[in-house]
TrEMBL record, chain A:
Pfam families, per the entry: Pribosyltran
PANTHER family: BIFUNCTIONAL PROTEIN PYRR
GO molecular function, one term: uracil phosphoribosyltransferase activity
General function of this protein: Regulates the transcription of the pyrimidine nucleotide (pyr) operon in response to exogenous pyrimidines.
Name of protein: Bifunctional protein PyrR
Similarity annotation: Belongs to the purine/pyrimidine phosphoribosyltransferase family. PyrR subfamily.
Keywords, ordered alphabetically: Glycosyltransferase, Transcription, Transcription regulation, Transferase
Annotated EC: 2.4.2.9
Automatic annotation (TrEMBL), chain B:
Designated name of the protein: Aspartate carbamoyltransferase
Pathway where it operates: Pyrimidine metabolism; UMP biosynthesis via de novo pathway; (S)-dihydroorotate from bicarbonate: step 2/3
One cellular-component annotation, GO: cytosol
EC number of the protein: 2.1.3.2
Lineage summary: Bacteria, Bacillati, Actinomycetota, Actinomycetes, Micrococcales
Start and end residues of each Aspartate/ornithine carbamoyltransferase Asp/Orn-binding domain: 163-315
Top-rank taxon: Bacteria
Residues reported in the UniProt entry to bind L-aspartate: 82, 177, 232
UniProtKB/TrEMBL annotation, chain C:
Protein residues bound to Zn(2+) 1: 58, 60, 152, 305
Record has Zinc as a keyword: yes
The reaction(s) this protein catalyses: (S)-dihydroorotate + H2O = N-carbamoyl-L-aspartate + H(+)
Organism: Paenarthrobacter nitroguajacolicus
Alphabetic keyword roster: Hydrolase, Metal-binding, Pyrimidine biosynthesis, Zinc
CDD domains registered for this protein in UniProt: DHOase_IIa
Details of cofactor binding: Binds 2 Zn(2+) ions per subunit.
Cofactors, names only: Zn(2+)
Record EC number: 3.5.2.3
NCBIfam families linked: PRK09357.1-1 (NF006836), pyrC_multi (TIGR00857)
Xref: Pfam families: DHOase
Record protein name field: Dihydroorotase
Gene behind this protein: pyrC
Protein function: Catalyzes the reversible cyclization of carbamoyl aspartate to dihydroorotate.
């Protein structure tokens, strides 16, 4: 198992706190630009780390467009029950799904996640969305795209393209979730494989 | 958790995980599309050796909302006409590829037999066995109480337990699987339980249970309670001299209109009245009590589907070949990035 | 006689001093140090204990009627392997052993098998129905020479009927062996009533249902001046009542099963019906009281209550399962484990409770005799240092329902001599004893 060896290999940090903040600022502006404004925007973060990223993006969008109330455009979309690997993984308790009060019908929904990899999480998210309503457009924003796609899915907004080997692990640490001593927060860490 | 057989051995962490998952499941019930694909391709068999339409349809709704295929197997048998043995039935279901067996049986311990033998490899959920346990009923009761209790305390119900909640359970404890499952689970979740019953309807050995026992419902009410759970009492028990008459029973141990008023008089404005159903109105509970705003009877039914969805999901969604218990705190991300190594 | 001569060298007689035993023509021909016999087959008894063949007062051989559970042949093979040279075959066969015809049939089957003495027990009431006395006298006078009468499995609960039975058996020195269970207090009973049954939701079998019948019966026995044997005593209270009765001079004897000396109702938590038995497994306090009662003589004998069942009667829900456990092939080991290894009894005491006294209660001639010159050679050799793991599938009984499965137990039967013939040698079945042809028959 690669995880066993990777634990002993020092990791390198490829994005620090400032890098993340810059990337999110850029993505926020890209989202507004692609949407020609903040009209009908809904940001749905995918747990765990997609949600805090969505909250940060919403704050940046609100900063750029004073007509926007950040809280009213953010939601959380749990995809656990829609995954295609449920029966191959240990049981995962579902997370909370919470939509903005406006709902998602005829909205421009931007799905937010931290790392885009196989694309299977996003496929699950698209299925989950269908059961909740009918958005006009669905876009995808991710902090890191590390490649190795297994499905025809691509991101509309990418913080950083990060070519990796599939034996490597990419972990995003966010202040809202990862308050682990000795691990720098707000950074992307590569725990290199063997 | 491979099976859900009883609440006696359910850890607090597992119990809270079921309740938390049920919270998420209950949200699905409010949606337009009340269905999740989580158990697509899985087969759930409702194996009922005893009639219980309520429990069966609750499990059926739960399984269907998770997209499982449901087979209802009414193997109603009595001790007189045995018919096919449990072993043969189980092996038949195994041959059909059942992933989970929801079993209701008149014999205490029948679900344990299914789980302990090599007759079938499926997950076993006890939907009520004899006078032993009815764990999903207790979980839905606890779920109902937890929502009430956290609302009173102004806290989120997710992750919470029932610490400090005073629960009285009154009725035929001797023959009640609901009472047993509730005593263990409520104790695990930190509630203080008092059983109230005529001495004839309490089991020998009840003094070893982690609860208080009272023969006097009025004194129990006066001492203060946050939830009053009434158990169904079968009128026929009278014929076996468990009590002299249904009238005397309801006078002493029934939740009648006077006791309903007593809750108000004693200043217990937030005390809820619970009943697992089906109710004997006029015997263990009066109509006024059953229909009062305090009554959670219908909420219990509604929550039953959510709790059973949670149980089915937690038992069936994971890779059953991996026995390792999952850590609820494991971030979803970790499994995503290490997918290839599995 | 074609029977060989056997010389057992240096076995500890009743666990005492090592001596030689010469077995010839069905009797103990000599006992002492350094015996010699040119024609004898020598058996090294070093480290072994020589004991009188065990006599079981309580065995279910199931034949006639339930040959799918056990036959006289298979049951007596199991008995021989377990160190028995006589068993009392309980009356609840089908047809019930309530006539001279049935008891003679069982008796003949036992002689034809030749592994042990088979002593049929006669039913007290016709069809075990508890309504009308069976023809006890006819059974007593039959070739089976029945002396023990029991409705075992069912209690003779009608006090008048019990009184009459106790009175009637006085005519031929019989004994009524009572299955003490008040039926109304045990309707639908599934296990011992107490802390465990409360949790498991299984209908309780209260100790008082046994004790109240024993109390009634010892008083009836005193009143009519008869002889009572209490089957499978299982509670501390029962031991107290028997102790009290004996102190009053009442002619009562009592029996305990090996499983009640070792197992408790905690095992029922598994809902595995292999632990379902009647009377049920009780609490640890009961187990201790039974051990003490057996050690101090309040309880006179160990009876196996060997009750084989076909597997389908145990592979089911607890409530559906049959009651009973096999016991013939584990009795010696369980008694060694519970009574000897604990220091409560010696091997001489063991001989008393498994051989001498059982033979007296059943009035079995030629059994339970001391290991002295001229006595019938019903002798077993036991290796007390052996340890073995119980595997029901390796047993001679057809029943696979041993509650000791997987348990490691001490002591093994190395040899069994029945009427001077080795039915078991090297711990394995040898050949049965063949009765000489009787022309007068």
């Amino acid at each position: 198992m690669t995880e066993v060896t990777s634990a002993h290999v020092p990791s390198r940090v490829v994005l620090n706190q400032a890098d993340i903040d810059r990337a999110l600022t850029r993505i926020a502006h890209e989202i507004l630009e692609a949407n020609k404004g903040s009209q009908d925007l809904v940001l749905l973060g995918i747990p765990s780390r997609g949600y805090p990223l969505a909250v940060r993006l919403a704050a940046k969008i609100a900063a750029a467009d004073p007509t926007v109330n950040a809280e009213t455009i953010v939601g959380q979309l749990d995809v656990t029950m829609f995954r295609d690997d449920l029966s191959h993984q240990p049981t995962r308790p579902p997370r909370h799904t919470r939509l903005p009060l406006t709902g998602i019908d005829n909205k421009v929904v931007v799905l937010i996640d931290d790392v885009l990899y196989s694309g299977r999480t996003i496929r699950a998210a698209l299925d989950a969305l269908v059961d909740l309503g009918r958005p006009r457009i669905v876009r995808l924003a991710v902090l890191v795209d590390r490649g190795h796609r297994e499905l025809p899915i691509r991101a509309d907004h990418v913080g950083k393209n990060l070519p990796t080997s599939s034996s490597e692990k990419v972990r995003v640490h966010l202040e809202e979730i990862d308050s682990v001593d000795g691990v720098p927060v707000n950074e992307v860490v590569i725990e290199a494989g063997k | 958790m491979k099976h859900l057989l009883s609440t006696e051995n359910l850890s607090a962490a597992d119990a809270i995980r079921v309740l938390d998952t049920a919270e998420e499941m209950s949200a699905v019930g409010d949606r337009e599309v009340k269905k999740l694909p989580a158990l697509r391709g899985r087969t759930v068999v409702n194996l009922f050796f005893e009639d219980s339409t309520r429990t069966r349809i609750s499990f059926e709704a739960a399984a269907k909302r998770l997209s499982a295929d449901v087979i209802n197997f009414a193997a109603k048998g009595s001790s007189v006409s045995k018919g096919e043995s449990l072993k043969d039935t189980a092996q038949t279901l195994a041959a059909m590829g059942a992933d989970a067996v929801v079993i209701r049986h008149w014999a205490s311990g029948a679900p344990h037999r299914l789980a302990a033998t090599d007759w079938i490899d499926a997950a076993v959920i006890n939907a009520g066995d004899g006078t032993h346990e009815h764990p999903t009923q207790a979980l839905l009761d606890a779920f109902t109480m937890r929502r009430h209790w956290s609302k009173l305390n102004g806290t989120a119900s997710t992750g919470a337990d029932l610490k400090g909640m005073r629960v009285a359970i009154a009725g035929d404890v001797l023959h009640s699987r609901v009472a047993r499952s509730n005593v263990w689970l409520l104790k695990t979740l930190g509630a203080e339980v008092t059983l109230v019953a005529p001495p004839t309807l309490l089991p020998i050995g009840v003094e070893h249970w982690p609860c208080k026992v009272s023969y006097n419902l009025d004194q129990t009410l006066e001492a203060g309670i946050d939830a009053m759970m009434m158990l169904r009492v079968q009128g026929e028990r009278m014929n076996a001299s468990f009590f002299p008459s249904t009238r005397e029973y309801s006078r002493r141990w029934g939740f009648d209109d006077a006791r309903l008023r007593a809750l108000d008089d004693l200043g217990m404005k937030d005390t809820i009245i619970m009943h697992p159903g089906p109710m004997n109105r006029g015997l263990e509970i009066s109509s006024a009590a059953a229909d009062s705003p305090r009554s959670t009877v219908l909420a219990q039914v509604r929550n039953g589907v959510s709790v059973r969805m949670a149980a089915l999901y937690l038992l069936l969604s994971g890779d059953s070949r991996e026995a390792a218990p999952t850590n609820a705190a494991t971030p979803a991300f970790a499994s995503q990035s290490s997918k290839e190594s599995n | 006689m074609a029977e060989k001569t056997y010389l057992i060298r240096g076995a500890a007689i009743l666990g005492g001093e090592a001596e030689d035993l010469l077995i010839r023509d069905g009797v103990i021909a000599a006992r002492g140090k350094d015996l010699t016999d040119e024609n004898a087959t020598v058996i090294d008894g070093k480290g072994l204990v020589a004991l009188p063949g065990m006599v079981d007062v309580h065995t279910h051989l199931r034949e006639p009627g339930r040959e799918d559970a056990e036959t006289v042949e298979t049951g007596t093979r199991a008995a021989a392997l377990g160190g028995f040279t006589a068993v009392h075959a309980m009356a609840n066969s089908n047809p019930v052993a309530d006539t001279a015809g049935v008891v003679e049939q069982v008796h003949s089957l036992g002689r034809a098998s030749g592994w042990v003495d088979v002593r049929p027990v006669g039913a007290v009431t016709v069809g075990l129905a508890g309504e009308q006395l069976a023809e006890l006298g006819a059974m007593a006078d039959s070739r089976a020479q029945v002396r023990m009468f029991s409705d075992d499995g069912i209690c003779v609960h009608d006090p008048v009927l019990m009184r009459r039975a106790l009175e009637y058996v006085k005519a031929f020195d019989g004994v009524v062996a009572q299955h003490a269970q008040e039926p109304r207090l045990t309707a639908g009973a599934q296990m011992n009533e107490g802390a465990v049954s409360a949790v498991l939701g299984l209908t309780g079998w209260p100790a008082v249902a046994e004790e109240s019948i024993i109390a009634r019966d010892v008083l009836l026995t005193q009143h009519v001046g008869s002889r009572l044997h209490v089957c499978h005593v299982s509670t501390a209270g029962s031991v107290e009542i028997v102790r009290w009765a004996k102190a009053r001079g009442i002619n009562v004897t009592a029996e305990v099963t090996p499983h009640h000396l070792l197992l408790t109702d905690e095992l029922v938590r598994s809902y595995d019906p292999v632990y379902k038995v009647n009377p049920p497994l009780r609490t640890d306090a009961d187990v201790q009281a039974l051990r003490d009662g057996l050690a101090d003589g309040t309880i006179d004998v160990v009876g196996t209550d060997h009750a084989p069942h076909p597997s389908e009667h145990k592979e089911c829900e607890w409530a559906q399962a049959a009651m009973g456990m096999t016991g013939l092939e584990t009795a010696l080991s369980v008694v060694q484990e519970t009574m000897i290894e604990t220091g409560l009894m010696t091997w001489a005491d063991f001989a008393r409770v498994t051989s001498f006294t059982p033979a007296v209660i059943g009035r079995v001639a030629d059994q339970g005799r001391p290991l002295e010159v001229g006595e019938p050679a019903n002798v077993i050799l036991v290796d007390p240092a052996a340890r073995w793991t119980v595997d029901p599938h390796k047993m001679a009984t057809m029943g696979r329902n041993s509650p000791f499965k997987g348990k490691e137990l001490p002591g093994s039967v190395v040899a069994t001599f029945f009427k001077g013939h080795p039915t078991v040698l090297d711990g394995k079945l040898n050949t049965p004893y063949r009765y000489p042809a009787v022309s007068s028959n």
